[in-house]
Design goal:
- With 503 residues, the chain is α/β, with parallel strands linked by helices.
- It has helices at 23-36, 49-56, 60-72, 92-98, 117-125, 148-160, 176-190, 205-216, 231-239, 256-262, 285-298, 321-326, 361-372, 380-388, 391-417, 439-444, 447-456, 486-501; strands at 45-46, 76-77, 84-86, 199-202, 222-227, 243-250, 253-254, 268-271, 301-305, 335-340, 352-355, 422-424, 432-437, 462-463, 476-480.
- Among the domains are: 132-143 and 394-501, Alpha-Beta Complex (Aspartate Aminotransferase, domain 1), CATH 3.90.1150; 171-376, 3-Layer(aba) Sandwich (Aspartate Aminotransferase, domain 2), CATH 3.40.640.10.
- Helix 2 (49-56) packs across helix 3.
- The radius of gyration is 24 Å and the shape is globular.
- The structure holds pyridoxal-5'-phosphate.
Length: 503
């Protein structure tokens, strides 16, 4: 039986501590639904965060987190000092979301009320998409430098006169030449121990997580995820009915001690060891070995998301967990390696891959066939040629130099214009910097509020707190710099500084 607490009298709020959805998300969703359905009328004053946390028997942080998000999305007004009210004027887009687009629901509620609990939890993970500006959208590469002429030529070469078998159904694991090209690349560059038979092409990293979750785990099983971590990896875990358990990081990476304490029975750990996303730390060798020991002792799995591995500007990368695992005396087999082409080519490509332990590869292919047959084949032959003919490696080399210079430009602009607002440190890898709030800025606003203000100034940033599943987390902003030309950097940083300085 879930332990339910009697909710806040006003709109019968109730938190379910056994649900996979974090408490602050539950609270956020319930208040938002009450606003959208009219149960909380515009202008209604909410109880204080202190009394809500008392009534709901949850931490004040949980309540503050939920209220701040509702505030930054425009549902609530007047957060500090004068009490919290339901906004008099809800943004149009919110009203539109419940008017014509809402399906008929038996209770006449909002469209979201028609979704399953799992569906609502998924929506809760993803902020509404607003405008996405090049400065400073994390994960966006320098598209103006991508060799689209080469790419177009390769696509045309394959599809003007495709080999007879190509337009038919392909293999569930993907186009064999692409799988071979990826295996060669990973062996040479990331010291993986793999052959083409272990590579499965996916529609991006998220689908890789989805396949691992559904093919290896039972619903209800628990999964260690990094806290903070990339929310896009949590969605497929929730959708597969798993329970993601946030595990804090220490100086060496994911804390095994905390993981063992919080979910001793976990069946999977999802980690970003090369470059922790979003904080940018590298998992130490000792921690990698200890994590492998854990997986072998428990018969658990490790999903190694090597997202940022291509863009390392200083130092040598540690060997991937997959390769370390394969070199254990008793043999490997506990690590599934996850890769994506979103940042080296372009995000809309939606191609990624899994490297599956050899003995499981055939079973994965059959399981995959039952779900969606295979990833679309249109781009796969062109991508295979792009890698085989050296364009991929050349592009990575060019972008590595370009992004290193763009990071320097961001640091230089931040030093002069963001001093006193944000602390920005260099990072030896990746495509973004994580800027932490100074105490002075933290006294004035939250990172969600800062994100809203930046958006109004035409700048896209991501609030660091949104990468935490529990608690408010430290306040900060992710600044993706890869898509911002050096000459545009100072101007963009100035606009961000202006947005944060006012008020
Ligand atoms: C850590 C991490 N893994 C994976 C991805 C996404 O990969 P894909 O676009 O292939 O789903 C991202 C995107 O930002 C990410 O930050």
């Amino acid at each position: 039986m879930p332990r339910r607490r009697k909710g806040a009298s006003l709109i019968a709020l109730a938190l379910d501590r056994d649900a996979p959805e974090a408490l602050h998300r539950q609270l956020y969703r319930q208040i938002r639904d009450a606003v959208l359905s009219g149960r909380l009328a515009p202008g209604t004053r909410l109880p204080s965060s202190r009394s809500l946390s008392g009534e709901l028997a949850c931490s004040r942080n949980t309540v503050v987190n939920a209220l701040e998000q509702l505030h930054s999305e425009g549902y609530l007004g007047g957060l500090r000092g004068s009490g919290t009210y339901v906004s008099e004027e809800l943004p149009d887009q919110l009203l539109n979301a419940v008017r014509p687009t809402a399906p008929e629901t038996p209770g006449g509620g909002s469209a979201e009320a028609a979704l399953s609990g799992r569906g609502r939890a998924l929506l809760g993970l993803m902020p509404r998409r607003g405008a996405r500006h090049r400065a400073f959208l994390p994960g966006l590469p320098a598209l103006e430098h991508f060799p689209f002429d080469v790419w177009g030529r390769l696509l045309g070469r394959v599809w003007r006169q495709p080999p007879e078998a190509l337009p038919r159904h392909g293999e569930p694991a993907g186009h064999p030449p692409l799988r071979a090209a990826i295996a060669d690349y990973l062996r040479a560059v990331r010291a993986l121990d793999c052959d083409a038979g272990q590579v499965m092409i996916t529609s991006g990293a998220q689908q890789g997580v989805d396949l691992v979750a559904r093919l290896l785990l039972e619903p209800g099983e628990r999964v260690w995820i990094e806290e903070p971590g990339y929310p896009g990896l949590r969605g497929p875990l929730l959708a597969a009915g798993l329970e993601p358990v946030p595990v804090p990081l220490d100086a060496q990476g994911l804390s095994l001690e905390a993981g063992r304490r919080r979910a001793p029975d976990a069946r999977l750990a999802v980690v970003t060891p090369s470059h922790q996303y979003p904080l940018g730390r590298t998992m130490s060798l000792a921690r990698r070995l200890a994590l492998l020991d854990w997986a072998h002792e428990r018969g658990a799995w490790i999903l190694e998301d090597d997202y940022d591995s291509e863009y390392r500007y200083a130092g040598r990368p540690f060997a991937a967990l997959q390769g370390l695992d394969a070199r254990r005396p008793e043999g490997g087999g506990r690590v599934i390696y996850l890769g994506s082409f979103s940042k080296v080519l372009f995000p809309a490509l939606r191609l990624g891959y899994l490297v599956i332990p050899g003995p499981l590869a055939a079973a994965f292919a059959r399981g995959r066939a039952a779900l969606d047959d295979h990833a679309p084949l249109i781009a796969q032959p062109a991508l295979a040629a792009f890698i085989e003919e050296g364009h991929f490696a050349a592009h990575v080399r060019r972008m590595r130099r370009l992004y290193a210079a763009r990071q320097q430009a961001l640091l230089a602009a931040a030093r002069t214009q963001l001093a006193g607002l944000l602390t920005v440190e260099p990072d030896e890898a990746g495509m973004h910097l994580t800027a932490h709030f100074t105490p002075a800025l933290a006294r004035r606003m939250t990172d969600r509020e800062a994100t809203r203000r930046a958006a109004a100034a035409g700048i896209t940033v991501m609030p660091l707190s949104s990468y935490f599943l529990e608690g408010a987390g430290p306040q900060g902003l992710l600044l993706g710099y890869a898509a911002v030309p050096e000459q545009a950097m100072a101007g963009a940083v100035r606009r961000l500084a202006g947005a944060l300085a006012g008020g």
